[in-house]
Amino acid sequence: MKIGLAMFPTDYAIAPAELGRLAEAHDFDCLLFPEHTHIPASRKTPWPGGGDLPDEYSHTYDPFVALAQVAAVTERLLIGTGICLVVERDPIVCAKEVASLDRLSGGRVLFGVGAGWNREEMENHGTDPGRRFGVMRERIEAMKAIWTEDEAEYHGRHVDFDPIWCWPKPIQDPHPPLLVGGGGDRVLERVVAFGDEWMPNRGLDDADALGRRIEELQRLASDAGRGHIPVTAFGAPRDADLLRRLEEAGVHRAVWYVPPVPHDEAASRVEHYAERAAALAG
Q: What is the model's pTM?
């Protein structure tokens, strides 16, 4: 199983470039950054994790700026979003950001995507929360067109533009892998419709239940004429037995969360995680 890392890249934690150097030096597969453009002060939408919302949610760097810093100081490490809130981003601008990062990194981008959970945050960007999954699908479809066509156009309910010229195009063919995040009832349908991987972030302590959902994912993929769809477990446990069970269930990559802490503490955690990963590999 591949092992990667994720951290909220905040203004009070280890710098993204420093974390990237550590991740590559310890042979981790990837480094993923989540995002929130802001957190509405009303706090009407409860945090899915329960309790008070951690500070990192309102202190994150823009993920593409942070990932560009990582790309500049690494050579092998895969870099990506875990996840990018595409319902809060203009698809033409976002397509250029992803393609630019992919080219400048030498084709190392994993594009994790999702619709988010904070309703007021979406509304501040002009997205109706009740339509967010339709918005997400159309924006992703539009980005795919921009990445793969010299004169891209898209005409949908939420996204509509006539033929455009937009370069650069991604290095990865046809585009960086799209990892669809989430664990809701219809997430598997979304993965099959427009994703390249599934990236669940909850329920990872129940390998049997996750295994049943992965079986359903592969059945849906087969019914749609698609091949095997990989699964990345975001925020995966570090317990060796549970990780082996997740791998047997069909997970090919586990991403371990590093808290947004200062350099020395982060370095100590990454070294400890590397020891755990080496023990698993051995």
A: 0.97
